[in-house]
Design a protein that fits this description.
The chain is an all-beta fold and 71 residues long. The protein has strands spanning 15-18, 21-25, 29-37, 43-46, 49-53, 57-64. Helices cover 0% and strands 49% of the residues.
Length: 71
């Protein structure tokens, strides 16, 4: 349709979050991911307090490749 390839290759970028407090709740997700061939990015959370509530999650995943790092 747009002349794009059938699959996407390459690695995802990284995300850094800097905050005194981080609350992830009610099924929300903070994530780095890749939906095809390639590595997920890295997720760096700099916080004094991380609160995960009611199925809130932090993730790094990929369909095919290396999952990212969470630090």
């Amino acid at each position: 349709f747009f002349g794009l390839p059938d699959s996407v290759t390459g690695n995802a970028g990284s995300v850094a979050i800097n905050t005194p407090h981080l609350r992830v709740a009610e099924g929300a997700e903070v994530a780095v991911s890749h939906s095809d061939r390639g590595d997920a990015g890295n997720l760096k959370i700099n916080t004094g307090r991380l609160l995960l509530e009611n199925q809130g999650r932090v993730a790094a995943n990929t369909s095919s490749g290396e999952g990212g790092n969470i630090t």
